[in-house]
TrEMBL record:
Single GO MF descriptor: ferric-chelate reductase (NADPH) activity
Organism encoding this protein: Papiliotrema laurentii
Catalytic class of the enzyme: oxidoreductase
Keyword terms: Cell membrane, Electron transport, Ion transport, Membrane, Oxidoreductase, Transmembrane, Transmembrane helix, Transport
The protein, known as: ferric-chelate reductase (NADPH)
The FAD-binding FR-type domain, residue ranges: 326-423
Length: 595
């Protein structure tokens, strides 16, 4: 940074300096100090506070790096079967899986573990926003202005500390948001499970930036003299112009990210504007304080790596080499079957081999609806040359596809994303799959895999909650395959909240074979009505098992996931596991993406 930008603030004469003392992340300091005693004492505190802020930021990133290294190493070892380890896992599930229900209005459907991680991060930031600063006031004379004095306080070092921490958190915010996630690579945790921390870290950065701005406005507009000359000269400096631009961009980023902002503008506008505003914001931060580019450059690199990897994934699926040796990018035609006015089934034949694991998902772009939008969906089919999806057309692109009334539509796939969800499932694992509506796509491949292998000896049950009994036609063939396997018990629970009949849309309808399969499925599948007690469903399942581990899979509305999480937490009993009862160690796998 140009040293002249700091002259008004730090009253240092760089033009006549005999020595410049370097400070990482800040402008160098003129030594020895030739100002009055008060100004020199203030400068001591400014530079000491900054150096400690850099140290605290380094400690924060060392902790993050150390934790990621531990996770990465542990992933290469098989899960421990020691009794004390299993008992510890049961204890952690019992107490960390549920929500803080009294705070649901603030955090939504979020586990205690995620809230505690956020609380620990905020506690660290709060403590080290104030630590290492000497709080004092220095009244110093203004050069060439007899009788005029500046009031210099620790408000300046404190405001600088907040700005420094906001810069230091920027790469972490990018890491938490990336779809091509380094965090997932190290921990094995799917990228979308970091969305909660990404959102709240954004709130933290916004609060830090607002306080940083307020602090320096008070200093430059009120405490420094003479006014208004100092304030006018300050706001015209280039670094301040960029600071104002960065703050405006951050306000837009934060406002559009709130639930009210997303509802007012639409999710797709929020998503695209978020990408653009975030990158321009980082550029403005660079213009405001380039000395801290050690935090900004990694943020930009991580963002561009993420975007490049996404494009590469898409190209691997859609790029075809023609007989003449030339390449061509082609979309994939998907046959469309509409069962309700807002429920679609897509079936695709993949032109290029695509490998994915059960539980992973793809982003689908509907070309005829607009190439600038994509939505995450989980294939309900097993990995292979074909894919099938069931989705609900809510608004935007999916609603336009439903309204087109066509039997096929071209799509572009990007993926796969996420990780396998069946790594812990063995032939002696008792499996309960709970789904709500189109959430069936997340759990169905698990059951189809069990039915295909024909090696499972433990109990396997599907509990599917739908609005109407006729919704089984979405996956009639798959349900028939489960029934024929004799390995999976299927219960359809109809809430009865939707009684209207399907509309004649002119789209393709189930074939005669599919209709027969649907009728056979409805005839052979037990059904229930009314609002289900999912806690009771989970408890009864666990109590009915005799040997082996228990694993519960769930995908559906937030309330359903919360109920199942609470039930699974209640079924985990560390004392029983320590005593050798493995039935009381109940694992949970849930889909945290928005439908």
């Amino acid at each position: 940074m140009d040293h002249s930008n700091l002259h008004a603030r730090h009253i240092q004469d760089f033009s006549n300096a005999s020595q410049i003392e370097p400070h990482w992340g800040y402008a160098g300091r003129v030594v020895p100090c030739t100002n009055d005693a008060g100004s020199c004492a203030y400068l001591d505190e400014v530079y000491r506070g900054h150096d400690r802020g850099m140290l605290y930021s380094g400690i924060l990133w060392s902790i993050i790096g150390g934790l990621l290294l531990i996770f990465a190493i542990c992933r290469h070892f098989p899960p421990s079967q020691h009794r004390w380890v299993r008992a510890g896992q049961a204890w952690s599930r019992r107490w960390l899986l549920p929500e803080f229900r009294s705070l649901r209005w603030l955090f939504g459907h979020t586990t205690r573990l995620q809230v505690l991680v956020l609380a620990a991060t905020c506690a660290y930031l709060f403590v080290f926003s104030f630590a290492g600063i000497t709080y004092a006031k220095w009244v110093t004379p203004v050069k060439n202005s007899p009788g005029v004095y500046n009031t210099r306080t620790s408000l300046g070092p404190w405001a600088d500390r907040l700005g420094l921490l906001a810069y230091a958190l920027t790469p972490l915010s990018i890491l938490l948001a990336n779809r091509e996630s380094l965090l997932s690579l190290c921990t094995g945790i799917p990228y979308h499970h970091f969305n909660f921390l990404h959102r709240w870290l954004g709130h933290v950065i916004f609060a830090q930036s607002v306080l940083h701005t307020i602090g320096w406005c008070v200093i430059e507009i009120r405490l420094y003299q003479p006014q208004p000359a100092v304030a006018k000269a300050w706001i015209k400096q280039l670094y301040m112009v960029w600071g104002v631009v960065a703050m405006i961009l951050l306000i837009l980023l934060w406002g559009l990210s709130t639930p009210w902002g997303r509802r007012a503008t639409g999710y797709e506008f929020f998503r695209k504007s978020h990408y653009v505003l975030a990158m321009v914001y980082i550029g403005a931060c660079w213009g405001h304080w380039a000395n801290l580019k050690c935090f900004l450059l990694p943020s930009l690199i991580l963002w561009f790596i993420d975007r490049g990897a996404r494009l590469a994934r898409t190209a691997l699926i859609h790029y075809r080499v023609l007989p003449g040796g030339k390449g061509m990018f082609t979309s994939i035609p998907a046959s469309v079957t509409q069962y309700e006015s807002d429920v679609l089934r897509l079936d695709l034949a993949l032109p290029n081999p695509v490998s994915w694991e059960i539980g992973q998902h793809f982003y689908l772009t509907f070309v005829q609806g607009g190439i600038w939008q994509s939505h995450p969906f989980t294939p309900l089919s097993l990995p292979g040359k074909r894919q099938a999806y069931v989705l609900r057309a809510k608004s935007g692109e999916t609603r336009r596809v439903a309204a087109m009334e066509k039997e096929s539509t071209p799509v572009i796939l990007t993926g796969p994303y996420g990780s396998s969800i069946v790594q812990s499932v063995t032939p002696i694992t008792n499996v309960l799959a709970v789904a709500g509506g189109t959430g069936i796509a997340f759990v169905l491949p698990i059951l189809l895999d069990i039915a295909r292998r024909k090696q499972h000896t433990a109990k396997v049950q599907l509990f599917w909650v739908v609005r109407a009994q006729r919704h089984v036609e979405w996956i009639a063939e798959e349900l028939d395959a489960l029934r024929k396997s004799g390995l999976v018990s299927v219960t359809i629970h109809s809430t009865g909240s939707e009684s209207h009949e399907s509309l004649d849309t002119g789209l393709s309808t189930p074939s005669e074979d599919q209709a027969q399969s649907k009728a056979q499925s409805e005839k052979n599948l037990p059904s229930m009505a009314g609002r289900p007690d999912l806690r009771d469903v989970v408890r009864r399942f666990v109590e009915s098992t005799e040997i082996g581990d228990n694993c519960v899979f769930v995908s559906g509305p937030g309330g359903m996931t919360s109920d199942v999480r609470d039930a699974v937490a209640g079924c985990n009993d560390a004392k029983a596991v320590w005593a050798g009862d493995r039935r009381k160690e109940v694992q949970l796998v849930y889909d945290e993406r928005l439908e």
